[in-house]
Amino acid sequence: MTYSIRRLGEHDLGAYRKIRFEALSNHPEAYASTPENFAQRSDAELAALLRKMSFYGVFAEPGLGGILAYARSDGERERHRGWIYQVYVQPALRGTGCALELIETAVDQARDEVLQLHLGVGAHNKPAIRLYEKAGFSIYGTEPRSLNVNGRYVDEHLMVRFLDKAPGDK
User: Fold this and answer.
1) Which of 5, 19, 85, 146 has a Cα-to-Cα distance from 61 of 20 to 30 A?
2) pLDDT in tens, 53-75
3) Cβ of 70: how many Cβ atoms within 10 Å?
């Protein structure tokens, strides 16, 4: 399957809104936000978010098929850390390598800005954990009951990838 990856801009707002809503609706246990709350966000709010954070998208026929957001911590003592959020790839694109390439695109930007990247992933989500491990992330802790989704608690693994070390360094 042919695809391309590029940074999203305000002109991608409609496509971003559609795929983010899809992700939240189809995988409620994977995200802190709900589809209902997301649907209430105005275009102006989402445009501001697209400007504030770095969003990347996977494009394949028929359009935007995956997203990832990257942000650097703002705090004076936390500027060495970055975060990956909102990772989602549509089922038709899974297994193509685009999810790993999407992560590496964000890592390329982060490498010039931070020393380490963090993310959280549901402890039950074995395919995502394998993907993140393949991308060089390691679990450093588990947040019990991180989310409460429809009366069910979801534990979340906290993962990190150090960007200032060579592969294999501890």
Assistant:
1) 85
2) 999 999 998 899 999 999 999 88
3) 24
